[in-house]
Amino acid sequence: MAAEGVSIRPAKREDVPAIVRMLADDFLGKDRERVTDPLPQSYYDAFDRVAASGNLHMVVATDTSGAVVGSLQLCILPGLSSQGATRALIEDVRVDGKLRGQGVGEVLIRWAIGEAKNRGCYLVELLTSRARVDAQRFYVKLGFTESHAGMTLKL
Prior knowledge:
Blueprint: E1 7-10, H1 16-24, H2 29-32, H3 41-52, E2 56-62, E3 68-78, H4 81-84, E4 86-95, H5 104-118, E5 121-126, H6 133-141
Parallel strand pairs: 4-5
Antiparallel strand pairs: 1-2, 2-3, 3-4
């Protein structure tokens, strides 16, 4: 069931510290992110690039007090395949560790699916680490199916 009182809004620059804290709050993110005060400028520069793009959407979930309790990035990807279809890619889904399992993630994902439909996307994709077994179960519960083998190349 979706979390009561959770709403979705576009992320603001002042949300960056809360988003980065959530990105760092798991066994994979803790080694990738740098949560310092102040945050490295690279996070703000990246946020500015996302905000300036017409096809990238960073959103946050907030509770009734306005506190940031989740976030995700939605990428709208026009393409030639599938007869010129547009697809959506959901990335960097995070929920405050104290609230996991309480429906915040579902609110975020359902928002992203609705936004993808509104933008004429024919499908929604997401990637998750093979190590994130709980996340995989969560996405299957919401109707996602395993369909591709994801591959990466670090540069």
